[in-house]
Amino acid sequence: MDAAFTDEQVEIRRTLRRLLRERCGPDEVKAAVRTAPGHDEALWRLLARQLGLPGLALPREAGGVGCGPTELALACEETGRALLPSPLTATAVLAAPLVDRLGTGAQRAELLPRIAGGELTASLAVPGGELTRALGLTGADDDGGGWAGGGRAGGVQARESRGSGGSRGSGDGGNGGGGGGWRLYGQVDQVLDGHSAGLLLVAARTGGYTRGRTLLFLVRAGAPGLVRTRLTALDETRSQGRIELRDVPAELLGPGGPGGAEVVGALARLGATAAAALAAEAVGAADAALERTVEYVRTRVQFGRPIGSFQAVKHRLAEVYVKVEAARSAAYYAAWAVGRSAVAHESGAGAGAEAGEAAGTAEAAVAGGLALAQALEAQRRAAGEAVQLHGGVGFTWEHDAHLYFKRAASDELLFGPVHRLRAWAAEREGLFAEPDVATAGAAAGAGASATTDGHRARKAVAV
């Protein structure tokens, strides 16, 4: 593993940091979140035009830049540092990879160039607040996407409508008329940028209560029966919306067919990439909070000296620094593991290659979950210390430190909690596996024999 960044990666980071310093200070952030979409649309178009940010990890043939998960993680670290209100996470991290992986040739040709150019934003809608479970970060998907609900379980239900001639529709769902397609019913809360995204990828349950399967559907903005509401969120820099689906026409993502297992698998593979990007974003926010706090304690004078010279303050900030650096290393490793897994997927062939690819995918998933847990913890610690070490002014709600505090609290609610991320990673690695009965019995017998022999030896020495 080469831990050094390439010149291109360094330039991506430097250019993005310089641009965000000029265009995305705390005052600009507070102004952007109060607009209708919740972000600065002009800045988003600029980032798309100059840096290709929405399509950074999309292939060149789809209109993207052709970079990988490491470059995406570096970009997310810089947007996290500035607390940039943008559709980057919803569009580039969650939605676009699914369109690229599952979409038909026509869907990819229509949607991906518009996403990469910043013309179209997208979001993934997972019912029931089960985003991390659907991505395989906090639990196994033992019921094949049952988290999508449908029927008596709530969530979102999909029904294939009949054409005017009584035959099943083809699934195009484009016009919502009598030509067939799919119809969606239900409600999804806490959809990232759900109130403003031009395209929604909705996970819905179809096939009845007992033989159901989870599929992904494309819902266009302005579709009849679609009601979207912006929610009041703790963290205004990460906009959330509620979508209500009332007999909404939808288009099946992909060519159709059984597809349920493929969708669930694609979501699980996306989890490792998303975890690495979210971890890097949290690291950027934590590092910025630490940097602001260090700058403040150097200038805040108490008892005739800067408070940063007090040993207790030094110790507290040193502990935050160690946590942030450890989280940064974990996020970079997770991104590297995802990239290596993707290379194995593209070049693999044969049974041995498939086994190696599966092992690499599992490694990336565990590394991503642990990196996200480490980053969320570091972000929470850095934001908390920022509020406390700023003293009385830090406790005022309008202070900039609270932007980072709210981001830390909101991220853990959306993508955590930390203990569940770590518990599932440990379970996947078999750390909590029950020992084999025969092996355990033999080990216990050997231990008892060794204990008896030791006791006899001690008695002999004593005599």
Structure description:
- The chain is of the alpha+beta class and 463 residues long.
- It folds into 3 domains: 7-119, Acyl-CoA dehydrogenase/oxidase, N-terminal domain (Butyryl-Coa Dehydrogenase, subunit A, domain 1); 123-257, Butyryl-CoA Dehydrogenase, subunit A, domain 2 (Beta Barrel), CATH 2.40.110.10; 262-428, Butyryl-CoA Dehydrogenase, subunit A, domain 3, CATH 1.20.140.10.
- Helix content is 54%, strand content 14%.
- It has helices spanning 7-23, 26-32, 41-51, 69-82, 88-102, 105-116, 131-134, 260-299, 311-347, 350-389, 401-415, 418-428, 437-462; strands at 122-125, 156-163, 179-192, 199-206, 213-220, 226-230, 240-252, 301-302, 305-306.
- Helix 5 runs antiparallel to helix 8.
- Residues 164-179, 349-353 and 450-463 have low confidence and may be disordered.
Characteristic terms for this protein:
463 residues, Butyryl-Coa Dehydrogenase, subunit A, domain 1, Butyryl-CoA Dehydrogenase, subunit A, domain 2, Butyryl-CoA Dehydrogenase, subunit A, domain 3, 3 domains, two-stranded antiparallel sheet, globular, disordered C terminus
